[in-house]
Automatic annotation (TrEMBL):
The keyword Repeat does not apply. Belongs to the ABC transporter superfamily. Involved in beta-(1-->2)glucan export. Transmembrane domains (TMD) form a pore in the inner membrane and the ATP-binding domain (NBD) is responsible for energy generation. GO terms for biological process: L-amino acid transport. This is High-affinity branched-chain amino acid transport ATP-binding protein LivF. One of its GO terms (molecular function) is branched-chain amino acid transmembrane transporter activity. Gene3D superfamilies: P-loop containing nucleotide triphosphate hydrolases.
Length: 240
């Protein structure tokens, strides 16, 4: 498949800190690309740079052939890019419904789309009229993903959706993202749970110290413990 998103020599500085040092990788259209790396490697900074929350100091972020690196975040979102941040980004004082209404930037909620999303995440229907602050941690993460997909998006950036979640919730998230993948929505996923990364990923990029140190097929990395040790200093099969 052609590449939908490409980062070319991206550098990001935050105050006096130089976080990204020439990041280069691509995200093929219609698949799931997993961004792996140790804590502090620059994964979240990469996601925030793509969304324009932090501005690239150098290099280009190309989306469908257009350089979006100088656009502001609302303009990037209007290109059809959704973002699920690590901190979830939900409004706890608003109901589940109100959270989704705010996320549906193009107009009223589409009933068919709501039915599809609540089919993926049944607790959203159960707690539809309750404040989002009443949800459990896993349910809040479901709401965060629901907000990103309540309207069709061409690309979804998802930052560590299973962090701190119970195994049953993780499995529900895998199932939901597989269904999202079937709609030809492209996904860039930061994920520490290798079982999830392996289950969903088509391609993978590995970061270390603000640089991409490996790019390739997810299946290749998943099947090569020696390569995992070389890139990240651990066997991912034992690091679930």
């Amino acid at each position: 498949m052609p590449d939908l998103l490409t980062l070319e020599g991206v550098h990001t500085r935050i105050a006096q800190y130089h976080i990204l040092h020439g990041v280069d990788f691509s995200v093929p259209a219609g698949g799931v690309t997993v961004l792996l790396g140790r804590n502090g490697a620059g994964k979240t900074t990469t996601m925030r740079t793509i969304m324009g929350l932090w501005r690239a100091a150098q290099g280009r972020v190309m989306f469908d052939g257009e350089d979006i690196s100088k656009l502001d975040t609302p303009a990037i979102a209007r290109r059809g890019i959704g973002y699920v941040p690590e901190n979830m980004g939900i409004f706890t004082d608003l109901t589940v419904k109100e959270n989704l209404v705010l996320a549906a930037a193009n107009g009223p909620l589409d009933s068919a789309r709501v039915d599809w999303v609540t089919g993926l995440f049944p607790p959203m229907k159960t707690f539809w009229n309750l404040p989002a602050g009443n949800l459990s941690g896993g349910q809040k993460q479901m709401l965060s993903v629901s907000r990103a997909i309540i309207e069709p998006r061409r690309l979804i950036l998802i930052d560590e959706p299973t962090k701190g979640l119970a195994p049953a919730i993780i499995q529900a998230m895998i199932t939901a993202l597989r269904e999202l993948k079937k709609t030809q929505t492209t996904i860039l996923l930061v994920e520490q749970n290798f079982a999830m990364a392996k289950a969903l990923g088509d391609t993978v990029a590995v970061m270390d110290d603000g640089r991409i140190v490996h790019r390739g097929a997810m299946a290749e990395l998943a099947g090569d413990a020696a390569l995992q040790e070389k890139l990240m200093g651990l066997s991912l099969e034992t690091h679930q």
